[in-house]
Amino acid sequence: MSHSAIILFAHGARDPAWALPFRAIQAAVAASDQTKKVELAFLELMQPALPDVAERLIQEGVQSITVVPLFMAQGGHLKKDLPVLLDALRDQHPEVNVTLTPAIGDVPELTQAIAQWVIQVAV
Amino acid sequence: MSHSAIILFAHGARDPAWALPFRAIQAAVAASDQTKKVELAFLELMQPALPDVAERLIQEGVQSITVVPLFMAQGGHLKKDLPVLLDALRDQHPEVNVTLTPAIGDVPELTQAIAQWVIQVAV
pTM to 2 decimals? Predict the structure, then answer.
């Protein structure tokens, strides 16, 4: 059993198709890194919620969780809502290592990749 | 004067820092493609709004606008709100060529880049 997990954390929306790109990323990560469980969780409007996913992973024996916010930028959701969830998780499970990564837009290699794509597609 | 423009379209947030990644993408695109004006517009909570940016560009002589939604996925904002804005723009300026690109999460090369980054940063 894997002891490390990745939770891809997305906003959620009423439209079920919203989840498709996140599922594609999940599948690509899971295919490339078979040493970790790779799960998807949502802030609102979609299930599963982050606390539920984390709880299940911990019950399965996971000792280290990397939370990756699949958000374009940091606003109230990542600065206020997510820290509350992570603080609660760390309080309830101090034995579990919970790591938070930057958002997509805070990663220069990703903003550069997006910029290069924009240049290609612009008419 | 350039006759083509790119409008990078983002959600917006109350936190001013939300705009920073989008400004970084804007700067990278503008630096690489100096044949086009490159502007940023927001759906809500931040200025400028898309119709205002488009109107100004058209008054400056722009005849072709590519709208690039810097959203992770397609939900109500891109399926309902954005088409209303684009329809109004095309109605008011039928002489202007308005092109819409996919969202970030609909572009396989970008979801792959995101997945590769996730694999690198996960503990």
Answer: 0.94
